User: What shape does this take?
Amino acid sequence: MFDVERVREDFPILSSEVHGRPLVYFDNSATSQKPRCVIEAVTDLYTNHNSNIHRGVHELSGRCSAAYEDARSKVRGFINAPRDEEVIFTRGTTESINLVAQSFASAYLERGDEVIVTDMEHHSNIVPWQMACERSGASLRSMPFDDDGNLETHLLEEMLNPRTRMVAVSHVSNVLGTVNPVKDIASLAHEHDVPLLVDAAQSAPHMKVDVQDIDCDFLAFSGHKVHAETGIGVLYGKSEWLEDMPPYQGGGGMVGIVKMGGTTYAEPPLKFEAGTPNYVGAVSLSAALDYIASLGMENVAKHEAVLTEHMLESLAGFEGLTLYGNAPLRCPVFSFNLDGIHHYDAGQILDKMGIAVRTGTHCAEPLMDHYGITGNVRASLAMYNTVEEIDILAEGLRKVQGLFA
Ligand code: PLP
Assistant: This one.
């Protein structure tokens, strides 16, 4: 069903060499590689159709406007949102969360209110809330996790109270790979009439994400992590919230009537899309989602489960290696340190072998504090990675250890 070698042929960069060695690309949580169909969709748009959208009466503008709105429908299908109007295009997960933190907070967050995040969030789902709390006089609370990387969700019941205005949680940790029980969190939050925002940056590339099944109020993800271009992202929001929330930015495209005495706003989603949107990025996202659909997300997930099992077996038997996170449900993201070897040194030596991993805090400093470390090495896999590449990494790590022995 899923032929990884054929899939790899669709990604031109995967046949390249780095430092004279075949590229092993294990930095997919940072950004994923692009299939030829995405690259070609962008080239085709610029070569044959390019024009700004929503403002022109001419043919090219009509084509690009239609392609942009088609992309919105495709995203709606990808996350099973009930309506196209609930899909807002942004620059990425970061902007999507900032949009909610600013717009939602200015309407609903007051002095004494509370927002709940978790200790395993990416900075994108911490800092915007800190800023919103600072502006409003609300306070930020955080749900801890255990050493295996499981959220202590039993504590959420105690944390939720009449002053809680929002719960914001990552679907999948970008460091530990943990898949968080967002559906349970949604129902618990809703019992207290509190909305839930899900950061799906690391789940969207690996599993079916269904906003109706989760029953989240907001959900954010980035195009560049699901094999589309950089600079395009998505915010899903339930209509009842989007209609009530004030605009995030002002400018062209988000207005009804503009007079010097005052302005009326367009309906969602346009209310939240001020200025020329990234219509080229939206078209690339549309092509990327078509590509994923052509493989089948279930097939991608099955292949990645095989990779996960192999990686865990490989790392389990590794003396002098500490793996962070051991959740029962996980995506193929693995963070670790080698005893006595700085993560940065390990990453640099692996790079010389053509193996691209990420080192540092991965924009998750509170998570690093939990383990009392300054950073680690992260190998994050995607649909086009192979069991053989995992063996190359293991061999590479042994060489790193040998160099420091
Ligand atoms: N949330 C998570 C869990 C992430 O892993 C990332 C990026 O790595 C982000 C948010 C931010 O995504 P972007 O930089 O595409 O806005």
About this structure: The chain has a mean pLDDT of 97. DSSP finds 14 helices and 17 strands in the chain. The first strand starts at residue 17 and ends at 18.
